[in-house]
């Protein structure tokens, strides 16, 4: 991010402990050590090495690290180790992790559950989109650790289904996004209710002014750990800007989606996500949509399908820009470029995670070039620009694009086409965006028939574009 938008890091009065060279020197409970061995967690990532010694010692921690850098275990191992052996009363958790989205809440819970179970700690998730009655019942039964989104937790606290006066350890994960989403008042209200003498840890990919408010008001002489540059660029991540013609944008995106391997594709609106997903499935590409208009069970099911390889393409709004980790996801495509540099960084953060490599591709039309160039500059990203058209070898080289199967999947419908003159129009009506510069075998076309076919293709592309 642009450094001008970030606040100066606070100075630590009491020096912190040095980074850990290995997990072995941290003195973690044997149960955690055995679980880590079983999960092949062998060496600490930089953010873990920098923060765990101080977090285990009970110090407040301020950590800046990009998504996918290992933040969850950086705070999670310390939180669980320091909570082990304690028992929560009804409706009174002992440790709290606040996150901005349901997806991130579930991901944090999934990552910490094996360790919590090893220590016989009860962990529950409190998020919107699911039945609050079940969540209230889990809190009443007793849960030492709660992973929650601010809105739903505030609702349960307001209904006296949860009390925070026994919370000894509080973590704010992805604090910048919580502020961006307007949760700052709720987060502040919740922090005012936890034990004033408790430990607080704040982790964020960027440190904006709203995050500064949380740091100044709620962290006491925090140990500061910064393991990523403010811009968030990652050496193992390649960035490409593909200059496309507006009428060929979705045709190009369809070919990219048909590649071998999984791909995450971002669009701006729920309507455009649904429309493009239908287009892909009508072209024979195994795709599914993810956005805030889906119920939480739907979103969870779709994410699991993507992670298990049951679908190859996840088409999403920015709801998937954080809290989504998929092993070996090596390509993220911005079909619609983000306007904000932070959104670009967090979308791209879905790939090149935990030491892996990845590629971020952004489709840019002529009218978007200036804004995208400015956004990338503010994000500290240097991208390789390449003009492409459907079927170009450069498109295949950069993204693995290829011709989609063309056979609609069960339960999907091929996108309707604008009627065209004569038999050519009838053929085109059941074909999606073809791409790769190919078309169904046909005899020599008359000039009028060829013009009618091209006009029908342009109309289909324009109709999808208007549906954003």
Automatic annotation (TrEMBL):
Record's keyword annotation contains Hydrolase: yes
Biased composition (Low complexity): 413-428
One of the record's GO molecular function terms: helicase activity
Family label: Belongs to the DEAD box helicase family.
Family matches, as Pfam families: DEAD (PF00270), Helicase_C (PF00271)
Taxonomic path: Bacteria, Bacillati, Actinomycetota, Actinomycetes, Kitasatosporales
This protein's name: DEAD/DEAH box helicase
Biased composition (Basic and acidic residues): 442-460
Residue ranges of every copy of the Helicase ATP-binding domain listed in the record: 52-225
Segments traversing the membrane: none
Gene3D superfamilies per UniProt: P-loop containing nucleotide triphosphate hydrolases (3.40.50.300)
SUPFAM superfamilies: P-loop containing nucleoside triphosphate hydrolases
Keyword vocabulary terms for this entry: ATP-binding, Helicase, Hydrolase, Nucleotide-binding
Chain residue ranges for the region called Disordered: 400-468
InterPro entries for this protein: DEAD/DEAH_box_helicase_dom, DEAD/DEAH_RhlB, DEAD_box_RNA_helicase, Helicase_ATP-bd, Helicase_C-like, P-loop_NTPase, RNA_helicase_DEAD_Q_motif
Limits of the Helicase C-terminal domain: 248-399
Motif Q motif: where in chain: 21-49
């Amino acid at each position: 991010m642009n450094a001008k938008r970030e606040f100066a890091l606070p100075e630590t009065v009491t020096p912190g402990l040095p980074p850990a060279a290995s997990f072995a020197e941290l003195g973690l409970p044997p149960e955690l050590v055995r679980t880590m061995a079983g999960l092949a967690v062998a060496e600490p990532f930089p953010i873990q090495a920098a923060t765990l010694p101080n977090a285990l010692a009970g110090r407040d921690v301020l950590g800046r690290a990009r998504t996918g850098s290992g933040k969850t275990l950086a705070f999670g191992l310390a939180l669980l180790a320091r909570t082990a052996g304690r028992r929560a009363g009804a409706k009174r958790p002992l440790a709290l992790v606040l996150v901005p989205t349901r997806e991130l809440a579930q991901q944090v819970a999934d990552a910490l559950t094996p360790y919590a179970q090893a220590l016989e700690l009860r962990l529950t998730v409190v998020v919107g989109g699911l039945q609050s009655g079940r969540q209230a019942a889990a809190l009443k039964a007793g849960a030492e650790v709660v992973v929650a989104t601010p809105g739903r937790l505030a609702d349960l606290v307001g209904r006296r289904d949860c009390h925070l006066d026994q919370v000894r350890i509080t973590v704010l994960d992805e604090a910048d996004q919580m502020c961006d989403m307007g949760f700052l008042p709720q987060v502040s209200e919740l922090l005012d209710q936890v034990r004033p003498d408790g430990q607080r840890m704040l982790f964020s990919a960027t440190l904006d002014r709203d995050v500064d408010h949380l740091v100044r008001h709620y962290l006491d002489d925090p140990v500061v750990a910064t393991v990523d540059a403010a811009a968030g660029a990652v050496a193992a991540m390649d960035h490409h800007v593909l200059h496309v013609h507006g009428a060929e944008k979705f045709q190009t995106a369809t070919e990219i989606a048909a590649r071998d391997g999984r791909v995450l594709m971002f669009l701006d609106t729920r309507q455009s996500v649904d429309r493009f997903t239908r287009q892909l499935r009508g072209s024979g590409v195994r795709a599914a949509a993810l956005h805030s208009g889906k119920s939480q069970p739907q979103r969870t099911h779709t994410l699991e399908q993507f992670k298990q390889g049951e679908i190859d393409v996840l088409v999403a709004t920015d709801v998937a820009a954080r809290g989504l980790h998929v092993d070996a996801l090596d390509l993220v495509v911005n079909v619609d470029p983000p306007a904000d540099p932070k959104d670009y960084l967090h979308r791209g953060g879905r790939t090149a995670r935990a030491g892996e490599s990845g590629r971020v591709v952004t489709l840019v039309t002529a009218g978007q070039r200036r804004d995208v160039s400015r956004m990338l500059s503010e994000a500290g990203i240097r991208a390789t620009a390449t003009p492409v058209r459907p079927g170009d070898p450069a498109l295949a080289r950069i993204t693995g694009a290829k011709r989609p199967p063309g056979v609609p999947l069960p339960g999907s419908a091929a996108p309707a086409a604008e009627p065209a003159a004569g038999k050519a129009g009838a053929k085109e009506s059941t074909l999606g965006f073809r791409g790769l510069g190919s078309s169904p075998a046909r005899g020599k076309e008359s000039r009028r028939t060829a013009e009618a076919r091209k006009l029908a293709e342009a109309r289909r592309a324009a109709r999808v574009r208007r549906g954003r």
